[in-house]
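Lay summary

Proteins are chains of building blocks that fold into shapes. Our project writes down both the chain and a compact code for its shape. Here are two examples, one after the other.
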Amino acid sequence: MIDLSRHVSPGAGIWWSQTSAEPTPLVHALLDQVRDIGPVRAFVGLTWDRRLTRDLPPEVSVVSYGGLGELRTLARAGRLDVVPCHYGALPRLFAEGRLPSDVGLVQVSPPDADGLVSLGVGVDYIADAIEHTPVLIAEINHRMPPTRGSARIPLSRFAAVVETDRPLLEAPERPGDAVEAAIARHVAGLVDDGDTIQIGVGTLPSAVLEALSGHTDLGLHSGLMSDAVLRLVDKGVLTGARKQIDPGVLVTGAALGSTALYERVADLPALFRPASYTHSPAVLSQLTSLVSINSAIEVDLTGQVGAEVAGDTYVGAVGGQVDFSRAASRTGARSIIALRSTVKGVSTIKVALDFGAVTTARADVDHVVTEHGAAELRGVGLAERARRLIAVAAPEHREELEKAFMPTELAP
């Protein structure tokens, strides 16, 4: 394996690709060698690498934009430093040197005839960070598909490379339940034919995409795409025919799903763009048909959304929720927050947010959807907002919400 001591100095700041594009062999080499190298500060987004939680050396301090995947365990252990920022702010934070950026570890596709490689299914914040990182080290994975939409990288840009031939990390889909199906039906009822949607990955987003199978000419402009997106492409639903910009193509920053998805991305009408494009206010403002669909941990009776903290643990992120919700609400079609009405018997619709952090401001939320219906909040006063949100709360919790609801406490 590569000797990283030739490229990483004590005190260096290191970042690496996230999710399905994680350069796992390079990360493990760092963990194996860091005791000899000295302390480093590492940045990564969503990771499933259990070595980071099972035996993280004390020489590695981890910083991220949220507590996603295995980083939740680090957060519980007090070993995660969260920078609460919009996903769309990451390019600027790297440009200003506010995030670790001395060395970058990436997974790329094999070089083409011109000696250029692609970031494949993991463009997202990586394409932006590369511009401000002097030392790059690459895992050239022969199973990483080349993708279109971002600049190819010459092999000469890398200080060192290793070659592998291993499957990309997968995110197996779990079948949704009746509650998620009900939420999905309500969300689908708020999407018009021809709209451009932004949506994440997971069980509920997959259920929503399935519920949209009867729509026509939908577009996609999102940070991630999944197998559920692929199914809508195959059904002729996601054509992008009516998009105001990038018509006829899917725009995403990354793909996260199964091997079947990864094997097809190179042939899809898809552009893999950096976060500086996918989450840019200037770009999003041109999508007047944009519908953002995001999830939450809790929503209060004014419409404030918490999507970062549960209990005393960081389990989510600001991520792209605000980037897309604000654009969809102000210059697009509508912003939607979808969530189950209860988790472990506790209402997710609350008089006040239990966990403190406000991820998305109430002014950026047009609809809150649970399995019990959709509460429209756009242009609605605070007292009426509370009544509408109570109406979509779990029936067994509505009485206590009504008793606790005090309109005088909801002053601007």
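And here is the second example, written the same way.
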Amino acid sequence: MALCVLYGVDDPSVVGGLLELARVDRERRKAKGGWNDAPFAPPMKEYAALESAARSIKTWQVAFIPVLLQTVDYIRALNSDDLFINARLTRQRRLTDDPQIQLQAVIYEAVLRNLVGGVDVMRKQLDHLAVVGQRRNVSVRVLPFSAGAQLGMGCGFSILSFADPGAMDVVYVQVPRQPLWREGGEGAAEHDELFEGIAQHALSESDSRTFIGSLSEGL
């Protein structure tokens, strides 16, 4: 507010937008402190903090079930450390504790066919996806093999939004051993466009549930 007065900025929409950015930044800083002791690599600690302050999440996954949608047994199959498991479950609670957060997940078919933890674990995971995808704040869609090659199939990524669409978007690109970050600007906009392009070729939510159910029954 002091800077706005100093520079003669009195447009309510501009002042309001700047105050919103300041509020979001405070939330992000507070959230970051809560993950300092989590058993994650530093980039993932940063991501978990940002995720906990985000208002909407778009995620495209080509290797694993989205973290926020993983079952306990699926998580344990990836890492049996109790602290790691509890940290992931803590992240998941946002979907139930905060109905305002919106999650849009597009999952490549190969992820659903990869038997992480074995047949029983994967069957329960698929059943869980079909159920959780019916929540009002969760959208689960599948990109089937029949969709053919698409841009963005080389690696998964997630887009976190905090205020107005695009204003403070952060993109986390899941490159092995060296994750990449894009915050705001053209980088975030390009990934949002990429996500929407992939989503256009994905099955609808209803067809995705049917597809997931058929995979579960076939195990």
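What can we say about the second shape? The chain is about 50% helix and 15% strand.
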